[in-house]
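Sync notes, pocket subgroup
Present: LS, DG
LS reminded everyone that the earlier model was apo-only. Rerun requested with magnesium ion included. Inputs:
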Amino acid sequence: MSTLMVSVSGIRGIVGDGLDPQTLVKYTQAYSNFCGEGKIVIGSDGRISGTMVKSIVIGTLLAKGNDVVDLGITPTPTVLYNIKKFNAAGGIVISASHNPNEWNALKLLNSDGEFMTPEQNKEILELLDKPSQFKSWDKLGKLEVSEAGLMNHLNDVLSLKYIDFGAIRKRKFRVLLDCVNGAGSYIMPKLLEELGCEVIKINCEKNGIFPRLPEPIPENLTETMKTVIDNNAEIGIVVDPDVDRLVLITERGEPFIEENTITQAVKFILSKEKGDVVVNLSTTRAVDDVAKEFGAKVFRSPVGEANVVKKMKEVNAVIGGEGSGGVILPAIHYGRDALVGTVLTLQHLLEFGGTMSELKESLPKYNIVKGKIETKDHNPDDIVNRLMEKYHNEKINTEDGLRIDFDDHWVHFRQSNTEPIIRCIVEADKKENAEKYMKKYFTALSELML
Ligand code: MG
């Protein structure tokens, strides 16, 4: 069976088993038809197959008459950021994000420098089977290779108004950096060196081969956490291959916990600026507690960057993000950006004056547990609908599956679009309580499927 998956954020598959040249041409030409005649900005995350995928994508766009700006190997947020800089009609990131070496993907972006909206994606899907017209030799698009994209992004992040560049430089943070040999290797060392940090690098090779599973979750970071201690680093900074997720490690070599990346960033920004916050429905309640201290409101959106951004614009939020280590700061651009997360963290740590583990300790404490249950012959939508009936008297949100908020915990049920499963996320004050509630909800789910 082909591994090709089509979702709201683009197409994804295993190279040689789904993500093949014909498929790439088909999607790229539909995307070109959607964008029209403008310029398209391209970047890739550095994985080996990026060269093959990018050649086909660029070739197709040129054949369609689109001018192309190739930013080279760059983070996803760098491409998002540069669409407006280059006055482009859109952008494509060639990256399967945190998925292993064998995967690749096209992430399709719109002319606002954001992920395509679900409506825009639908338009592209409708264009897929329309016959395509290609240009004659004298009307082909032109290709520009630009290194300015990375520098534009880097310089703007460094001149963020909340950052005291001189003070951070003077502080000389000792930082352990792990870019999993992805696109971060091309920009993160430079960012930290500009900030006067003493940088100890692991997995910052530009060879495009991920030496471990690239998702920055604790079980994949045991070696990295140990290296933080071995090198007496004050902080460990880990990014995923396309640098939209930021994961931190304390000076004790312990996870700062990915949910805390957004929590501390929210706390820092609200200490500087009045305004509201948007996070997705699966994100920790710690964000609400922090926002309350500043009299700010927290709005919840469905899971997914495009949804968070949509809500942020609606409510004019000053910061937003997702619990998996994604920080979105509209002052730079509307996209999850680990460069932005990094400078905010260092400035926050500087002003806080303590260690990373003390900073972690100062944040509200919650524990999230995640599980999933197979629905077998049952339609996941039906099961979630029945849960909605069962809990209709509680404080519920049904914008993306079902989230129920209780005083001492919350639970979020989300059905998958591609598999017969329901994901279940529970957060409580202590791990054992979260696990206790998880058990309770699994029993409730099983009973609904009898
Ligand atoms: Mg990513």
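DG: The longest helix spans residues 431-448.
LS: Residues 78 and 153 are 6 Å apart (CA to CA).
Action: DG to write up.
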